[in-house]
Amino acid sequence: MSMKDTAVNPEQSAPATNFTGPMSPALPKAISERHVACVFLLDVSGSMNMQDAIGKLNDGLQSFKEHMKTDPRTADVVDAAVVTFGGDVRVAQNFMPVSDMEVDPLVAYGASPLGEALRLGLEMIDKRKEVYSLAGTPYYRPWIFCITDGTPTDDWESAAYQLKDAETKKKVLGYCVCVENDPNFAKKEIFQIFNHSRILKLEDLDFSGLFEFVSNSLAAVAESNPNSESMVHVEAPHTLTMIMQ
User: Tens of pLDDT along 160-217?
Assistant: First the structure.
C-alpha cells in the first residue's frame, strides 16, 4: 500500500485558540532534523466495548510505541498526540516524541463526537507548527489519523470543511480507518469527511497489524526526500484494505 510522501516547507500558521490537556506539548528532540507530527483521533465510544475492541486498541497503541522505539532516530523525529472521542473529547496525550509517549489505558463509553475531535486535532497541529517554527525545526506535512467504528454523532460538517480546506492548502493529510466492529456502521458520513483515497477498513480487530503499518509508514516518511512528492510504499497487513465506495 502506498502512503503519500508528505514533504512540505514550513508555512506560517494562524494563531489558534488555547486548549487544555493533561500535559503541555513537549519541545521537539533533534530540533535540526525534519519532523513529522501525527494526531491520532481514537473512537472510544461505547460500541468499542464489543469484542473487547478497546482492549485491543490499547494493546495496539503500546505496540506502536515499542515498534517505533526500535529505531531511536525515528522515535525522536516522529511526534505523536492522542485525542479520544467517546461521550466527550479529550487530549489523552499532547504532542511529544514517540520515544517518550505514555498513554493511560483508554476506556470506552458514550457516543462518537468525531466532529469536535477533528476540530481539536486541526487546532493542535497548528500549535505544533508554531512550536516547530519557534525552534527552527523543519517538518513534513502533519497527519491526522482517525480510527473509528461508528457514525459521528455530533455536528461534523464544519470540521469536514476545515479538513478539506487544510488538505487543499497542503497543510495536513487526513486518514481514516473504519473498524469492522459494528454491522450498522454505514460509513456515509466518513466519505463526506475524509478523502476517499485515504479511507481504509480494518478487519478482525487487528490493531497490532494496523499500528505496525502506521509506524512503518511514519518511519518511511521521516526518511524520505523532503523535496519529493513521490509515494512511499509500505506493506500493509491483509486485514487492512482500501474501501471502495
Answer: 999 999 999 999 999 999 999 877 787 999 999 999 999 999 999 999 999 999 999 9
Specify the residue for cell string 502506521: 214
Q: Which domain holds residue 89?
A: 2-242
Task: Measure the CA angle with vertex 176, ends 141 and 87; round to 5°.
Answer: 110
The residues near 37 (Cβ < 8 Å, ≥ 6 apart) are 78, 79, 80, 81, 95, 125, 128, 129, 132, 139, 142, 143
| The three grid cell numbers given for residue 220, joined into one nine-digit string | 518511511
Q: Output Rg (C-alpha) for the chain, integer angstroms.
A: 16
Domain count, the chain: 1
The residue length of the chain stands at: 245
* pTM for this predicted structure: 0.89
Cell of 139: 517538518
1-26 pLDDT, tens digit per residue, is: 655 443 333 343 322 323 334 455 67
Degrees, nearest 5: CA angle 172-78-24: 85
Extended strands (E) in the chain:
2-4, 36-43, 78-86, 88-97, 143-148, 173-179, 199-202, 231-233, 240-242
Could you tell me the CATH number of the domain that includes residue 91?
A: 3.40.50.410
Rounded CA-CA distance 185/144 in Å is 21
